[in-house]
Design a protein that fits this description.
Structural class: alpha+beta
CATH architecture: 2-Layer Sandwich
Strand content: over 45%
Number of helices: 2
Helix content: 25-40%
CATH topology: Alpha-Beta Plaits
CATH superfamily: Lrp/AsnC effector binding domain/regulation of amino acid metabolism (RAM) domain
Strand order of the largest sheet: 2-3-1-4
Order of helices and strands: EHEEHE
Amino acid sequence: MSTESINVSGITVVVRPESFDAARRRIAELPGIEITAEDAARGRLVVVQDLPDMDDHRDGLRRLQALPEVLLAELVCHYCEDGPPDTRT
């Protein structure tokens, strides 16, 4: 029997305001990413990353940081918890 787990990260992203739209599109296309807040005038986004494990979270943060429009992407919080056993068949 497997367990379901919750594994989410909150990440603050700063981009060049003049390339905000392009950066937003690229960020939204990344796996496990949801943009939860944005300020185009200041080039700021808050994203939630929901991926299976810590290695995926680390790699996802690095993908964000490597985008050409991104000036800064920093982990603000991370939460993980093993849930009850998965009883689905």
